[in-house]
Amino acid sequence: GIFIIGATNRPDIIDPALFRPGRLEKQIYIGLPDLETRQKIFHVYLQNRPVSDINTNELARLTENQSGAFIEAVVNRAATMAWRDQRPICQYDLRKAIAVLR
């Protein structure tokens, strides 16, 4: 047999025929990360990067209702800004990236 996994941000527009028996029978909802998880996601994406005085608790609060992919994009944008100035990533870079990407 074949095992297929699908993911969407818009389940409301999926053709109901896909959920008939023998097709995509099982649905599992995975919500957005909570505060603690967002903080951990920031840690993961910031590790192995030059950083200076980062408060991941504040960043997690500023990214409420955002996905892990959004947090990754924030860190990448902040890293680019810091790289251009040839310095470590700082809190300001991350705050600015959050504001720009919203």
Mean pLDDT: 95
Radius of gyration, taken over Cα atoms and rounded to an integer in Å: 18 Å
Query: Which regions contain 5 or more consecutive residues with pLDDT less than 50?
Result: none
End-to-end Cα distance? 42 Å
Helix content: 40-55%
Q: Structural class of the secondary elements?
A: mainly alpha
Largest sheet: 2 strands, parallel
By CATH, the architecture of the domain at 35-101 is named Orthogonal Bundle
Described by the principal axes of the CA atoms, the overall outline is elongated
Could you state the order of secondary-structure elements as H and E? HEHHEH
CATH fold-level name of the domain at 35-101: Helicase, Ruva Protein, domain 3
Strand order of the largest sheet: 1-2
**Total count of helical runs of at least 4 residues:** 4
The first-level CATH class of the domain at 35-101 is given as Mainly Alpha
Number of strands: 2
- In terms of DSSP E residues, the strand content is under 5%
Describe this structure in words.
By secondary structure, this protein is mostly helical. The chain is 46% helix and 4% strand. The protein contains four helices and two strands. It has a two-stranded parallel ribbon. α1 crosses α2, α1 runs parallel beside α3 (68-84) and α3 (68-84) packs across α4 (91-101). The mean pLDDT is 95.
Helices, strands, pairings?
Blueprint: H1 35-46, E1 51-52, H2 56-62, H3 68-84, E2 89-90, H4 91-101
Parallel strand pairs: 1-2
Quick summary of this structure?
This protein is mainly alpha-helical.
Which short descriptors sum up this protein?
102 residues, mainly alpha, Helicase, Ruva Protein, domain 3, two-stranded parallel sheet
